Amino acid sequence: MSYGGLAGGIRLVAPSGGTVTIGDDVVPSVDGDGFFDLAVAIEAPGLSAEAFVRFVDGSLARFLRRLADDWKGEEPASTWEAGEGGLRIAARRDPLGHVLLTFSLRQAHPNDAWAAELTLQLEAGEEMDELARRAEAVFGRR
Questions:
Q1: What is the CATH number of the domain that holds 135?
Q2: What is the mean pLDDT of each successive set of 10 residues along the chain, which is 142 residues long?
Q3: I need a surface site. Which of 15, 36, 53, 121 has the fewest CB within 10 A?
């Protein structure tokens, strides 16, 4: 797994060529209630999807930190969902010590609803810790 260097976002690049990008080079501005919108993209061979997703300040960073700190896999599965459901991340463990993150992106507008999904594999230790650190830097720890 490699990571892109976005100032206001995170880009995960799998060896298979699949990518998940959360945010972009623009640092998000948080409204008075702690919400902000970011572009999220999922790309893989034969798949390209992008939508704006509403986030709650710090909730994604807390979810990823919890996964990284649980490197032994005591909590075998957990899920995080964005404020209005545009992005869902389901985490599960495999027997080899990997965390499988399934990113489900959807556009719920009734006239052109769609959904896209991509699963990425990260090592439970260093790779998950790096992802959590990046999320904390971008989205805060609150």
A1: 2.30.31
A2: 57 90 70 77 94 84 93 87 90 92 87 90 93 86 54
A3: 15
